[in-house]
Write a sequence for this structure.
């Protein structure tokens, strides 16, 4: 191969070849990349060989199972994605002057965040940017972060939890609210101003799935083990079980309605971990598209929710 020549690389490499190279890496086969980019396999092979000649270094390691990027190819993958993302962002921003903001934004969040916070703000965004395709996926905490890390979602809004792997995302604080115990009106704890976790641990506690890890950690700090008998996903199901007298649950105060107080009592939890912090996740090191950046700005421009004083609710 020829020696690396920076100016030669800049002058000779076109955007389509960069996209073809990325497709080959993602598909792990040049033939499948050719089908994806709608060109002949021989043409795809020739383009990638020419790209390696221009770069002066092997970019793909070829084997019986397909191709993988070489160390130099991995560097090109990173920069090629940045270049193509920037070109797409440029196109979107230029077209916005004549057509209005266009594009697609995928948001991943949990029901306990969508219902009290995001739904209203996403509605405002949709009215402000009617030409943007807005996609909302309801997921659990860990799945939200994974979706953003993989690039399946542009923005994820999730509740902080100690077991989450945040290595692939950048996080920005979004809102705060409190967790409170939901107990039957006839239960002795209903008359309390606040409760501690040890008070709840001795009861039949019905956790929403996303909070099980938090409860196990809180129990461990007390030298106990948390082994729930109920496994539920939604706050509505947990509340229904409490109303039926089957136990207690813990929910964010933002989910409580006036109607709920006629059926159960909500008691503030006097624990530091009961202040629930929600964050916005974006893929680490990737620039948001203009539509996603506009949504991010809108979410962060809104007043932050602060937790009510202990004992309220």
């Amino acid at each position: 191969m020829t020696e690396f020549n920076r100016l030669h690389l800049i002058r000779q490499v076109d955007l389509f070849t960069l996209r073809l190279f990325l497709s080959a890496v993602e598909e792990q086969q040049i033939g499948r990349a050719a089908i994806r980019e709608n060109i002949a396999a021989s043409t795809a092979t020739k383009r990638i060989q020419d790209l390696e000649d221009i770069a002066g270094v092997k970019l793909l390691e070829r084997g019986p199972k397909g191709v993988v990027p070489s160390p130099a190819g991995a560097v090109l993958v990173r920069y090629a994605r940045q270049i193509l993302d920037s070109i797409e962002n440029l196109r979107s921003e230029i077209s916005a002057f004549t057509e209005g903001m266009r594009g697609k934004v995928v948001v991943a969040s949990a029901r306990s965040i969508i219902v009290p916070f995001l739904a209203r703000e996403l509605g405002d965004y949709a009215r402000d940017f009617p030409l943007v395709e807005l996609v909302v996926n309801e997921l659990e905490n860990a799945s939200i972060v994974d979706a953003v890390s993989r690039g399946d979602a542009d923005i994820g809004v999730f509740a902080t939890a100690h077991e989450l792997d945040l290595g692939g995302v950048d996080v920005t604080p979004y809102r705060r609210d409190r967790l409170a115990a939901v107990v039957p009106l006839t239960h002795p704890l209903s008359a309390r101003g606040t409760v501690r976790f040890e008070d709840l641990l001795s009861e039949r506690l019905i956790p929403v799935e996303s909070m099980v890890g938090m409860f196990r950690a809180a129990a461990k700090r007390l030298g106990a083990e948390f082994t729930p008998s109920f496994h539920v996903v939604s706050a509505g199901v947990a509340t229904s079980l409490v109303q039926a007298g089957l136990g207690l649950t813990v929910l964010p105060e933002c989910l409580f309605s006036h109607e709920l107080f006629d059926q159960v009592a909500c008691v503030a939890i006097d624990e530091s971990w009961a202040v629930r912090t929600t964050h916005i996740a974006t893929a680490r090191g990737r620039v948001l598209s203009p539509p996603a950046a506009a949504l991010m700005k809108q979410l962060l421009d809104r007043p932050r929710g602060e937790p009510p004083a202990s004992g309220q609710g």
In short: DSSP finds eleven helices and ten strands in the chain. The chain has three domains: 6-96, 100-175+276-301, 177-275.
